[in-house]
Amino acid sequence: MSAPIVIVGASHGGVQLAASLRQSGSDQEIILYSAEDVLPYHRPPLSKAYLSGEKDIEQILLRGPAFYDDHKIDLRLGDPVASIDTSARRITARSGDQAYSKLIIATGSKARRLTAPGHELAQIYTLRSLSDVLLLKEAMGAAQDIVIIGGGFIGLEFASTAAKLGKTVTVIEAREKLLMRALPAGIGDFLRDYHAGHNVHFHFNANFAEFEGDNGTLKAVRLADGTRIKADMALVGVGGEADLSLLAPLGLKMVSGGIEVDDFGRTSSEDVYALGDVAAARNLLVSEPMRLESVQNAVDQAKAVSAHILGQGAPATPVPWFWTDQYDLKVQMAGLARPDAVQTFRGDKDANAFSILETVDGRLVAVFSVNRAADHMAARRLIAEGTPLDPDLAADAGTPLMKTVKTV
Amino acid sequence: MSGPVTIIFETAQGRREVQAKIGASVMETAVMNNISGIEAECGGACICATCHVYTDNVPEELLKPMSSEEDDMLDMATAERRVTSRLSCQLRVTPELNNTVFIIPENQF
Fold it and tell me: Are B100 and B57 a contacting pair, CB within 8 Å?
């Protein structure tokens, strides 16, 4: 009998992989290691419904408590993996050594931290895990002046939650606009104005310099140009990086800050796979491997790894998609922004419902939608199919996006 | 009334009664109780359409009206859309839903 399939990290991707293996009929032993001591949970609600208290932990669990036993998935909570030995095909976890037949690295990413003066002050937070949010939640009640460093998705979601609670919120962004890498300026500017309408203050082209404290208590955030912003709480939202702490000794091929994997999630080491935030893969839209920190990416890669382990064909190459909820706005992205794309606007900005389509040679490569779910869902299909659109129809918000395909 | 509410899920394998928490969504109730066929990939953000249910046996007035967003998502769901189609992440458990049946489509993704 062969050794178990060992999954390191009970992330969305790790849990999906275990579920997919069982769904596809595998009866091999599966061990799923988690460094955390709570049942695996959805991360996106952490900065929103969970933080605001609208949902409790039971409402954000990936699977119910009975799922793991029922599917004979040996979930080891509070059992961090300390080392991996790919030549001996063994891992060492807190609970002991374990041999594997297949190893899947699904350790995710961690929040990047700042090491500027004052970073050790107690009132400075990051937002990635449940334990981060428990701390944040407890501290938020008393906080009034909140400074967010980084105008990315986490920072803006937190800003909307905090602004709704009546806090004074200031966002510091190093670049001239919001979310310049991920979104067209038309969406970034719209979000800036929407936040400003909820009393969120912005500093653009702003370089963070230091946290100013007094007797161990945060008092202000200081920018490089000397600007001082009063603060009794700060959130550092300057992006994530793959959690590579376990990997250095393994000699795996790395690229773009992650473990290079192929369409099946295979790394450069035999029987070792990686998926989710920690992996860098090609996708339908890019030829260079990239890391994507998203639920969609984790789930689709998990399905691909499952298919490979079970000797099934590769699933269709996925179209990346992502969403962020801020106030009553649902911003949805399908595909990836490209600087060389032609942009087409459809919808009504004043009604907070519009999409920006990006096409290359008439074919959709990305759609960015605000409160237009139908556009988003259609885009996921149209990008995958690569069919050319009729530009006039595409610009007409009254025509369903699915019906804007060019007829020959 | 604030006692436990019973929700019934019907799949190809048969019916299962589960205890539901008032205020939780029907999707969350299914996930907590390990009902297969409710994937809920996005965790209730109304963006994946993998928590599709048929509400044939639920009186319509007991369900909150459908938002245009849910309507749009259902158009793109994998399983056939019917008049009684809803996304279970958008339905909250209320005392009035006691003993109602939600039917889970065979293919969710």
Answer: yes
